[in-house]
Each structure stands twice: as structure tokens, then as C-alpha cells.
Amino acid sequence: MNLLAPAQMADYRAKGHLTVRDVFAGEDMAAAVADAQAWAETEIAALDVAGRAWYLEAAVPDRAVLRKLDNPVYLRPVFRALATNVKLRALVTQIVGPDPRVFFSQLFFKAPGGGGPKPMHQDNFYFGPNDLDGMVTAWVALDDADESNGCLYFADGSNLGDVIPHAAPDGQPFNLLVPNATAAKYTMTPAPVPRGGVSFHHGNTLHQSSENHSDRWRRACAIHYANGKTELVQPALTYDPSIVVAL
Ligand SMILES: O=C(O)CCC(=O)C(=O)O
Fold first, then answer.
1. How many domains does the chain have?
2. Is the CB of residue 118 below 6 angstroms from any atom belonging to ligand 1?
3. Residue 228 domain boundaries
């Protein structure tokens, strides 16, 4: 089932990202948000000191707000259902090829009035796949995402370049990012996504997100898929192969 027109595929190949609106219905997103918030409450209560440092939003110091949670697709049936949805599966298969699997997923919260930015990076630096074209991230907008609440920004065409060195700031070993001097060379294009839409990006595409200056949440689930032949041969962090979700 090919859902993307040739022009959309050409756009993805040229720019390294593509937004598809209305992949999910409003009620799917409402169920995902309700589950995300319930999960967040239990996780906040259980975090140890190191966990608080990494998962809590430093930009909102007056209350305990999560920045992110890992592996929602593996851990939460509501997010498993999103990742294995027939339409999303068809879109991902058209982009990366057959037998896609989810090898990592992340739930980003970006709270109103302070949710912090995610600096520039390439997913393929984190994952180190043996086929650089074999993975795609499907970023599912649980809320409307725009420039005021911290949508993604992409360096158009950077998918056609190399994976470039990343470094972690002191005390943040998991926060691998492109150094500022390199990042300054790229022009970043905002990619607003209405609730229920999906922004797809190639693993080499340089991207970042801005701060949430609004009074609205910007929650999103990033689902990192690889096709059936792609393996993470040189990951920069540790990803547990026993929790990969086949579709
Ligand atoms: O949602 C964000 O702010 C960051 C998302 C991201 O880096 C990704 O989906 O790869």
C-alpha cells in the first residue's frame, strides 16, 4: 500500500524530512496524552537522583515536570498501538523498505512556559546503523506543534551529507549534540505539525527543537524504525536489542 505520492517521496529524499497530516484521529491523540500523563506521574515519583537530573525539565525548576520518557512503544500498549498502526506502518515501509522494527522510542513532553530546547543532532550518530538510509524517525504530534511551543527544525538536505561528530556537554553524557561552531553553519527550517500528524526524518537529517514559549503543551512520540535488514552496528549509546518491537 503506497500512501505517499512520488512528489512526497522525492521531497523526503531531497530534504530528509516530510510531514504527513492526519495520520491519527484526535481521539487517538487524546488517549495517548492521557496515558503519557498517567505514566509521567508514576515515573516522577520513582526517579532516583540521577534519573531526576536526566529526565526532569531543568528549565521548569519550580515543579517536577518530565522532559522525556524512554521506550513508550515497548512499555505502553497505547503507544505500541500507535507504532503498529496500519497506516503508519505503510508509510514507514514506503520510506525505508520492508519489515520495519522499532528499536527505540521516546516520549517528549516539552511543558508549557519553559520546556527546554533539544540541540542539533543526527539520529544516525546515536544509533550507528549499518545502512544510513535504513532508518527513519516518525515523530507523532500528540499536540499541535508550532514555532511558539517548540516544534522541530530541520537542515534541509543534510540527509545527503555525512554523519558528523557529536559531543556531550559536561555532566550530560546522553545529550550528544553537534558543537555550536558546526551547528551555526546550517539554516534550520521550522516544521510545524498539527496534532495527529507525523513528521518523518531520515537518520542523517540534522534537527533540533526550540523552547516552549507558549502556554500549551508540546508532547510528541518519536518512534525510531529500521527496516528488516538494518542493524545498529556502532551505537553511541546502549540500546537493548531484546526490546525491539517487530510490526
Ligand atoms: O521532540 C523533540 O524535541 C526532539 C525530537 C528528536 O530529536 C527526534 O525525534 O529525533
1. 1
2. yes
3. 6-246
What are the C-alpha distances in Å from 53 to residues 75, 113, 146, 189? 22, 20, 27, 30
Nearest to 3 by CA among 33, 31, 23, 27: 23
In a domain, 1, yes or no: no
Q: What is the pLDDT of residues 119-135, one digit of tens each?
A: 999 999 999 999 999 99
Q: Is the shortest distance between the CB of 153 and ligand 1 below 6 Å? A: no
C-alpha cell at 177: 549534540
Domain of 59, CATH number, reads 2.60.120.620
Distance CA 143, CA 92 (A): 21
Phi, psi of 197 (to 5 degrees): -85, 165
The alpha carbon of 209 and the centre of ligand 1 are apart by a number of angstroms equal to: 7
Domain annotation covers residue 25: yes
Q: Record the pTM.
A: 0.96
For atom 8 of ligand 1, the residue with the nearest CA is 222
- For the record, the C-alpha cell of 17 comes out as 524530512
Q: Is the CB of 139 under 6 A from ligand 1?
A: yes
Nearest to 123 by CA among 32, 236, 247, 15: 236
